[in-house]
Design a protein that fits this description.
The complex is a heterotrimer.
Chain A lengths: L3 H25 L16 H34 L17 H30 L8 E7 L4 E5 L6 E4 L1 E5 L4 E7 L4 E3 L8 E3 L5 E5 L5 E6 L12 E7 L1 H12 L4 H15 L30 E2 L4 E2 L2 H9 L1 H4 L19 H14 L12
Parallel strand pairs in A: 1-5, 4-10
Antiparallel strand pairs in A: 1-2, 2-3, 5-8, 6-7, 9-10, 11-12
Helix pairs in contact in A: 2-3, 6-8
Chain B lengths: L3 H8 L17 H6 L3 H30 L9 H35 L8 H20 L31 H29 L12 H33 L12 H35 L6 H14 L15 H29 L8 H24 L1 H7 L3 H31 L5 H27 L16 H31 L37 H6 E3 L5 E3 L28 H17 L3 H20 L8
Antiparallel strand pairs in B: 1-2
Chain C lengths: L29 H27 L12 H4 L2 H26 L3 H31 L8 H32 L8 H27 L4
Helix pairs in contact in C: 1-5, 1-6, 3-4, 3-6, 4-5, 5-6
Classes of the chains: A alpha+beta, B mainly alpha, C mainly alpha.
Chain lengths: 365, 638, 213
């Protein structure tokens, strides 16, 4: 017969156990959601390598964790003082054999883990060379990513959306001239910090076409959460097409139209550029706008590329993405007299006139 | 001609006292401001730290409300960034370290049979610096913006001058100056603890007869002594870059942001051992008492603690694995980090072996100690996973790391602290906290804590970075974040239960029995609470767990045999603290307060570039120091 | 001032209330142990700044260029002030010896000399700093300006605090409040003063003497 306290305790333990099970199951859910940013869904050679190391070690940790948890519960219950039990326990002070064993065994286990770890560290650190390698210079800003494709025959700038050919290593040179950021696309590779004064290198390679999301992973100021990015891996043919499209400059008429009708009034070209070749690049304070209409998202890859979003952005960017007191950030044009109609006209230009295929946007038809 | 009676009347005439005279009160509010009694100081440290725990906890709840759903709008980005910065800063510098100082203060002297710490007024100074530092940091909320560069404040985000606006407001100045101030207090207390423990042990108490608690506090004090200077240096460099356009971290001039990281983490890693070792110390005291067996492998536990303290200096760059330090450094620090798991694991096994074969009483302190073992282990395992560099390149700066350190610092340290509070409450106040409410406190906290932080392991794997004020919908992170927020509120309820328990007990609780837990160490050989002088006669120590050995001996099989009560094992009766005694204790003083007051005044001067204010603060500090060092430690009051 | 916690028994009211210095487990007095611990902590503080100096030396050539140590520093001049500081450690030792043997007049002479030597050193620093400033080396000029001024400035601040400390002891001695029984206070001030001197030897070597390529 269980008294009230015992029943309460059993109920509590069962409840806790059930809760734990629910938490565990909910947390596990196989390998988590397919959100294109899930490091447990490797889609690139580096992340495959990491997962090969991670998976066994994860399970070892789980086994040890469960064992220690079970042992803790066990010793607590098994040696519980029973009411009426007067015997006192033997006053054991220690045991040398045990001490040596539980020092050596963990040490051996760690030593075994250390070997593949060190090997993987060095293999991941190798920077690939050869004609197959694509080189991109990533410059981290507040709060977006600028890319300069630097291989001979490319030499153009773009932002936030990084296109790569499948099955080829992409060597990213990471630089920043403001604060520390971190470039991270979980499904392709681990992250690498972008440190002012310390150019770092990160190699990514996708094994199948697809979209892989990422974001800045080092606190870099007020809109750190809004510094996202996407990598679009394409077949070689599609990638080459994309490169050609990026290198196709806007017509002189369009550039003039933008300059006279938009930039002269609002000052866009003092931060942005509508030319993107290394040879004719304009100001690079803000993201390059030459083919902005081709991108799936903008403003640090946080807003899908639609006319409405672009309009609201042009109208009042600080209201859409906090910038704090950062000097020289995009102004709130609505407070400078821009009307919604004007904003929409500018947005329409950016969406439709810079897009390679304007018909890809319903708002442009 | 005066008679003898007249003469004696003259001698008994009351001496006129002015406000500048040495304070004398031992009770009443003013006595708390001027006390130099380590026990009173400990209580002040403890209650102030628990207050900051609540503040930090509320900040956490705010963060969790904001993150409960994608695209949350509860907190603006600026506010969120201030709150996560202050949450971390508060929990580490205004809760964790001061609570260790509180318990160390109360129990180091008692456990070694001393009457006070080596430097009672320096002790008080340390407390005032802590309180003023906390007030100084929080005043920033209304004086131009709270710190919002993260508790770690990486340069160049924090070191770029205000004019560039990398961070809104002058929070980073408050942060740098505030932490320097708190560091001064920490170093003062560290020196005090080391000198006390090394120099003031009772006759017969060799180092290896000291309780593990005292050993761990010595290690913590040495770590503090050596970890604070690199931090102070880094903070000065940040402050100089921000305000005087120096180039320490200005990459355009050749400055290196990684210098900041190296200096910060050379502090930062020992800092986490400064935080956790007191928790391990408390658990090492609680488990034996509630298992009625000595700590298994005392020497091994002590040496493991020392090993952790030493090895902790060799792992700092594991916080920098993705900074671009190169594969050789990555490999070296990966190995050194794995190495430190060994003494940590050894301690865990020794704790389990302590409970094994014992006569276990699952009172609230024991529940928290057991919770510590399980949860700290989980945190330690995720730590080992972080030491695997390739995995860390995915895990670093994600919620996986948030899960890891909350498991060791909350599931570990905070659980140990709660256990210690329940364990030592009767000693400090003479009253027992309610066991019924204690158990509710514990179970709610276990459920809430695990519900909050376990899902974060998976959020990290699934791509959610840290320090982000919001996240988009469609990432599949919403459910786990919501679970985590619910867990946070369950923690809040558990803390509420604790507060009710404390208030209820203080107001109404019955007086506790003298030796409520049948404990082992010398602090229990005093009344509850102890008199101001702790021990009427300084005890002569013959064994480890001296008090226990005055109550029990062992038969041939090693089983306990209860001894007849003797004068040596009798706990003195409670006394009125105002009752006169002939033991000279250091006298109260208000100079520690004055000395400490100079620091925040200088602090404000530095933050707002008011050089005259710095001057005034310096003068006050000098004046206070001069007065403090010229007044005698003990002043006759009759 | 010795620590005076007295372990008289409350059961024996006849025992007189004469304070006795505490017998410490280590044999070292509380105050002396404390100052050694403080000095060890401060060593790491200066170590961090000296390390920073070494990390950044020579780097200006690749970045802002600007004034270099070899074009700015006046080694003969600073050698003289360094020598003065070194001599101040000697006078400090003499001051301690004097108070220990009860010669308070000599003590005051030597401790005042120590303070004056310290002030001479600081004056030299101030002169040096103003000269450099006039030559265009400021805190923010380049890495040399930054690291030099902050490192030597912090050291100078420590010396200044030391000078105030010494003058305070001098003043107390004049008031008759610094008897031979309080000589440990002088020893402790001496330890701090010697520490500050040793730190200068490291700084002087690192900044002035080790040649840059």
């Amino acid at each position: 017969m269980l008294d009230r306290m015992q029943r309460l305790r059993r109920g509590a333990l069962t409840g806790v156990g059930a809760a734990a099970a629910i938490v565990l199951l909910a947390s596990c859910g196989a390998t988590g959601p397919d959100n294109e940013q899930n490091s447990l869904h490797p889609a690139g050679s580096a992340d495959h390598t990491i997962m090969n190391l991670f998976t066994p070690f994860f399970w070892i940790a789980v086994v040890i964790g469960v064992a220690v948890l079970a042992m803790t519960v066990f010793v607590a219950l098994r040696f519980r003082a029973k009411p009426g039990d007067d015997r006192e326990p033997v006053q054991v002070h220690g045991n040398t054999v045990l001490e040596i064993s539980w020092t050596i065994v963990p040490a051996l286990l760690l030593a075994i883990m250390a070997v593949p770890t060190v090997a993987t560290i060095f293999s991941l650190a190798k920077i690939p060379t050869g004609p197959n390698v694509v080189h991109v210079h990533v410059d981290a800003r507040q709060w977006f990513w600028q890319y300069e494709y630097t291989d001979k025959g490319t030499d153009f700038y773009t932002a936030n959306e990084l296109h790569i050919p499948v099955g080829q290593p992409i060597v990213l040179t990471l630089t920043s001239s403001n604060v520390i950021h971190s470039f991270w696309v979980p499904e392709l590779a681990g992250k690498k910090d972008v440190v002012p004064g310390h150019p770092n290198t990160l190699t990514i390679e996708a094994d199948k076409p697809g979209t892989y999301l990422g974001q800045c992973a080092q606190y870099c100021g007020i809109s750190h959460a809004n510094m996202r990015l996407r990598v679009i891996a394409q077949s070689k043919a599609d990638y080459d097409t994309w490169v050609a499209q990026q290198q196709t400059q806007l017509s002189a008429a369009k550039v003039t139209q933008f300059t006279t009708q938009i930039s002269n009034q609002w000052g866009c070209l003092s931060c942005h550029s509508v030319t993107n070749l290394a040879s004719n690049i304009g100001v690079t304070i803000g993201p390059n706008l030459t083919h902005v209409g081709d991108r799936e998202a903008f403003a640090g890859d946080i807003y899908p590329m639609t006319l409405t979003n672009l309009t609201k952005w042009v109208y009042d960017a600080p209201g859409r993405k906090p910038h704090g007191d950062l000097v020289g950030w995009m102004p709130d044009f609505s407070s400078r007299g821009m009307t919604m109609t004007q904003a929409q006209q500018i947005a329409k230009f950016l969406l439709c006139e810079t897009a390679t295929d304007p018909n890809s946007h319903p708002e442009c038809r | 001609m005066t008679t003898v009676e007249d003469a004696s009347a003259l001698f008994q005439a009351p001496v006129k006292r002015s406000i500048l005279d040495r304070p004398r009160a031992t009770t009443g509010a003013w006595s708390w401001v001027t006390t130099v009694d380590h026990k009173k100081i400990a209580i002040m440290y403890g209650t102030t730290a628990m207050f900051f725990f609540l503040v930090g906890g509320i900040e956490a709840l705010m963060l969790r409300i904001q993150l409960a759903q994608p695209n949350g709008t509860f907190l603006s980005a600026a506010r969120y960034n201030e709150f996560f910065t202050m949450h971390g800063t508060t929990m580490i510098f205004l809760m964790g370290m001061p609570l260790a100082a509180a318990f160390g203060n109360y129990f180091i002297p008692l456990m070694i049979g001393a009457r006070d710490v080596a430097f009672p007024r320096l002790n008080m100074f340390g407390f005032w610096v802590f309180l003023f530092g906390g007030i100084f940091l929080y005043s920033s909320f209304v004086l131009g913006g709270a710190p919002d560069g993260g508790w770690f404040g990486y340069a160049p985000l924090t070191s770029t001058p205000l004019s560039q606006g990398f961070l809104p407001g002058r929070g980073a100045d408050f942060w740098a100056v505030g932490l320097i101030m708190l560091g001064i207090g920490s170093v003062a207390t560290a020196i005090n603890f080391i000198v006390t423990a090394l120099n003031m042990r009772a006759p017969g108490m060799t180092m290896m007869k000291m309780p593990v608690f005292v050993w761990m506090m010595i290690v913590v004090a040495f770590l503090t002594l050596f970890a604070m200077p690199p931090l102070t240096a880094a903070l000065i460099q940040v402050f100089m870059d921000r305000n005087f356009h120096t180039n320490f971290f200005n990459a355009a001039a050749g400055g290196d942001p990684l210098l900041y990281q190296n200096l910060f983490w050379i502090f930062g890693h020992p800092e986490v051992y400064i935080l956790i070792l007191p928790g391990m110390a408390m658990v090492s005291e609680i488990l034996p008492v509630f298992s009625r067996k000595p700590l298994f492998g005392y020497s091994v536990v002590v040496f493991s603690g020392i090993a952790i303290g030493l090895l902790g200096w060799g792992v700092w760059a594991h916080h920098m694995f993705v900074s671009g330090i190169g594969p050789v450094a990555q490999a070296a620090f990966s190995l050194s980090t794995m190495l430190i798991a060994i003494p940590t694991g050894v301690k865990i096994f020794n704790w389990l072996a302590t409970v094994w074969g014992g006569k276990v009483r699952l009172a609230t302190p024991m529940l928290f100690a057991l919770g510590f073992i399980a949860q700290f282990t989980i945190g330690g395992l995720s730590g080992v996973m972080n030491s695997i560099v390739p995995s860390d390149t995915q895990q670093n700066d994600t919620y996986f790391v948030v899960a890891h350190f909350h498991y060791v610092l909350f599931g570990g340290l905070v659980f140990a602290i709660f256990g210690a509070i329940y364990y030592w409450f009767p000693k400090i106040s003479g009253k027992m906290l309610s066991e019924y409410m204690g158990k509710w406190n514990f179970w709610l906290m276990v459920v809430g804590f695990n519900l909050t932080f376990f899902p974060m392991h998976f959020l990290g794997f699934e791509g959610e970075p840290r320090r982000t004020y919001t996240y988009p919908s469609g990432m599949g992170w919403g459910t786990l974040n919501l679970m985590s927020t619910i867990g946070a509120f369950i923690i809040a309820v558990s803390v509420l239960v604790f507060l009710v328990n404390v208030i209820f007990t203080i107001r109404r609780g019955e007086l506790a029995p003298e030796d409520p837990w049948d404990a082992r160490t010398l602090e229990w050989l005093t009344s509850s609470p102890p008199p101001p002088y702790n021990f009427a006669e300084v005890p002569i120590v013959e064994a480890r767990d001296e008090f226990w050995h005055r109550k029990y001996t062992e038969d041939d099989e090693g089983r306990l045999v209860k001894l007849a009560p003797s004068a040596a094992s009798t706990i003195p009766a409670r006394r009125d603290p105002n009752e006169p005694h002939h033991i000279h204790m250091p006298s109260p003083s208000y100079w520690p307060f004055v000395l400490a007051l100079g620091l925040p005044i200088m602090g404000y001067g530095f933050v707002f570039k008011l050089y005259w204010l710095i001057g005034i603060g310096a003068l006050i500090t000098f004046f206070g120091l001069n007065a403090l060092t010229t007044e005698p430690a003990t002043e006759e009051s009759h | 001032m010795a620590q005076t916690v007295v372990a008289t028994s409350e059961t024996d009211p006849v025992v007189p209330h004469t304070p006795q210095p505490l017998q410490t487990n280590t044999g070292v007095s509380n105050n002396k142990l404390a100052i050694w611990l403080f000095i060890s902590s401060e060593s790491l503080f200066f170590g961090a700044f000296i390390a920073t100096y070494f990390l950044y030396r020579g780097r200006d050539a690749q970045f802002l260029k600007g004034p270099t140590p070899s074009s700015t520093l006046n080694i003969p001049f600073t050698s003289v002030t360094s020598f003065v500081l070194l001599m101040s450690s000697l006078t400090m030792v003499l001051a301690l010896a004097a108070i220990r043997r009860g010669d308070h007049r000599r003590f005051r002479i030597w401790i005042l000399a120590t303070a004056i030597f310290g002030m001479t050193f600081i004056s030299g620093q101030v002169y040096e700093f103003t000269e450099f400033y006039r030559e265009g080396v400021h805190l923010g000029t380049n890495l040399f300006g930054t690291t030099f001024f902050v490192l030597t400035g912090l050291h100078g601040a420590h010396v200044t605090i030391g000078i105030v400390w010494l003058l305070t002891l001098y003043g107390r001695s004049m008031q008759g409040k610094l008897g031979t029984d309080k000589s440990e206070a002088v020893e402790i001030a001496g330890l701090y003063w010697h520490f500050v001197d040793v730190v200068w030897i490291f700084i002087f070597t690192a900044v002035y003497l080790i040649p840059q390529h």
